[in-house]
Amino acid sequence: MDEPIDTARTYSIGELARLAGVSVHTLRWYESEGLFPRDVPRTPGGRREYAHDSLAWLALLGRLRESGAPIAVLRDYAALVRAGSGNEADRLALLRAHERSLDAQIETLIACREVIRGKSLAYQEALVARGIDPFAAAGSAVDEGVDGVVAAAG
Amino acid sequence: MDEPIDTARTYSIGELARLAGVSVHTLRWYESEGLFPRDVPRTPGGRREYAHDSLAWLALLGRLRESGAPIAVLRDYAALVRAGSGNEADRLALLRAHERSLDAQIETLIACREVIRGKSLAYQEALVARGIDPFAAAGSAVDEGVDGVVAAAG
DNA sequence: GTACGATCTAGAGTGCACTCGAAGTCAAGG
DNA sequence: CCTTGACTTCGAGTGCACTCTAGATCGTAC
After folding, report:
1. Which residues of B touch A124 (CB under 8 A)?
2. DSSP secondary-structure letter at B42?
3. Using CA atoms, how far apart are residues A12 and A50, in angstroms rounded to an integer?
4. What is the distance in angstroms between the Cα of A19 and the nearest Cα belonging to chain B?
């Protein structure tokens, strides 16, 4: 079951930063903010030696961040994992809460897209009605605008 | 065609803030940042007197902001509207660029949701396998965790 | 041994989008 | 007239999430 060649692999902070797509500054800052589920071991010289699974952990953090989770949520989740087994229901609750936030965000964005799409379609049709190619490079010398067609508020 | 009762309606900054769901501070700040398509008129006493269509304008700005458009984009759009007719193709280009950004955001969020959903389903199944109701209030006294089932990285 | 790049710590600085405070003005009610 | 509350300007402060600086140390290659 164990694959020592892979799992024994460690990363320097520079390597991990490159692989995870974050800066070394960010990795140190994440650590100082308690976003790792266990202490990052050091070499005798004091350098960070990340375990191979740090990359997967950072990938998860990355997804949470991308989807708007504040650092406090990542910290809470890391604290639960750090605390060890027995709190899986808490972890699940945290993840599900974020899922709901994610659903809400997606809905919001879809609603925004509809509004903005409506607006741009109005401009597009107005331009076509005036005999202008709506996808031509901008800056034509037409005198009269299409504001009345699109909306009073621009 | 004109409906003077409605279109002649003006709003004080407090009214408009309430209706648009932003703070009066924000309205003044938006104005100072050039986010209105024309100068906001003042009463003889120096107070702002927003035209009735300001509400629709703010609704559009709100949708753009909600969907991640930075203030600079709103400023550019306001500047185009302020410049008057003849630049509709530019306005359309701006809106369509934002639409593309919106599409990308939605895709990203959907990808995030899948990852996080996968994670929470794993916890859920692990809890069920251990005979625990995954939706019960958290904090049960189970000794052994499900980490091995979910993933090494938490 | 020395040069060099990567890493270390602690703490300051950045950018965004507000958000608030201070000190004063305006307008309607009593 | 006086109070009250909404309004004015200007500038400073806030919160978030990094991002960077300075000055020292580590470790490998020559």
Report:
1. 92
2. B
3. 6
4. 16
CB-based contact, A136 to chain B, within 8 Å: yes
- The angle subtended at Cα A25 by Cα A19 and Cα A30, nearest 5°, is 85
CA distance B77 to B36: 9
Q: Which DSSP string corresponds to B57-79?
A: HHHHHHHHHHTT--HHHHHHHHH
Backbone angles phi, psi at A105, to 5 degrees: -60, -45
Q: For residue B137, what pLDDT is reported?
A: 65
Q: CA A139, CA A125: separation in Å to the nearest integer? A: 17
Instruction: Give the nucleotide nearest to B65 (CA→C1').
Output: C17
Comparing A143 with A88, the larger pLDDT belongs to A88
Residue A101 CA, distance from chain mean position: 13
**A139: helix, strand or coil:** coil
Structure tokens at B5: 């009762």
Evaluate if residue B94 carries a pLDDT over 80: yes
Residue A19: which residues within 8 A CB-CB, separation 6 or more?
A11, A55
For residue range A19-33, what is the model confidence (pLDDT) as tens digits?
999 999 999 999 999
pLDDT value, residue B7: 74
> In angstroms, rounded to a whole number, what is the distance separating the alpha carbons of residues B41 and B51?
8
Residue in A61, A74, A63 with CA at minimum distance from that of residue B108: A63
Retrieve residue A82's tokens. Answer: 């750090």
| Model confidence band, residue B154 (pLDDT cutoffs 50, 70, 90) | low
User: Structure pTM?
Assistant: 0.88
Contact B37, B82 (CB under 8 A): yes
Block residue for tokens 């090494």: B152
**pLDDT tens per residue, range A32-43:** 999 999 999 999
CB B134 within 8 A of CB A92: yes
Which tokens in the block code for residue B137?
A: 């209030």
> Is B66 within 7 A of strand C by CB distance?
no
